[in-house]
Request: fold
Amino acid sequence: MMLQVRLTNWCNVGCDHCMIPLVNRHNKLRLSNEFYQRIGGLVNTHLKLRNEKTLRLSFTGGEPLTLNHDFLVNAYNSIKRTLDNDTFIEHRINTSLIAYRDEHAAYISDYVDLIKTSLDLSTRKINGSVNNYHQLWLKKYHAVKKLGKPMIVNCTLTKSEIGQEAHLIDTLMSYGIENIQISQFFKTGVPEVQQAEIPSNLEQSNMYCHIFDLVLDAYAKGKYINVDICKSYSRIALHLPMIQEEGCQKGYFVIEPDGKVSTCTIQSAVDKGVGRLNSETPNEILFSPDRLKNIRYQQNSFQSGCLSCEFFKNCNRRVCLHMPQNQEECMGYKVFLEHIKHRCTDLKFKSVLLSYLHQSRKSAYSTS
Reply:
């Protein structure tokens, strides 16, 4: 079970592609103590229904590091106290790192298992400068890295990155970043004027192809960087055994600062959710008509050609309800999958790729 707790939506970093509307990011409302007991009830009920014992508890926002050490520790401990004794917690924090201060070091060292942060080539700026942002971010990144926790850096691709894939990978490697997650740019929360920067499915797929080639060519020369799309899509293209995902709707929950419960991190700030902690029981939330409808949609909605596609069994098409559809490239990025398959007709390259996948399995954390 993945539980994303938005302790606050407040954030002043100002990313162009943020899925949380600006009006929400200006709201300084914080999740109140009254909700922690109810969060525990939701988690306990869901884990029992699923016969599971592991909770991935992620603090996010907004920017969670705008909150002080005591608030973060109290939030973690308050939720933990409400959980069944045999529940195993993997605690994550999603943060830009820009708000990191020395006082956060003890919280991260004592409570956090994984840090997910983000860096892009074009959408984050300080005084109009991407370089200024990068320099401040690097200062925070290296300060946090000294704490010894696994870190994953998320990169969101925009149209500005088309043709800049080599610059992207070179930049990230020069910064000493070890684990990268490549994300899509969604229109949710983004002003219409900036939606023109959203790549089409085909543009996204082609960028994936270039990144894949760059990462694998670097690996063949002895330079390794762990990139999620190179791993997950390779396993699909080669029909290798992989963890069967049921789709995020069955085991993913987002708690908003006002107590709203959603099942989609992309839509959570703008949708009506599937329930509210302050007015509905765990079972009412888990079996709400909206949640059940989302689950059915994710499990049963396909594009034309899906059922006859050779990659259908393990395709990532179910990752999100809100991926762009009705385009020349499908939601599963078949062009990218076919590119991987074609490159593997070269047995020498296939050997390199299999070695890369083996190396990636040894990483402390996956980039998923």
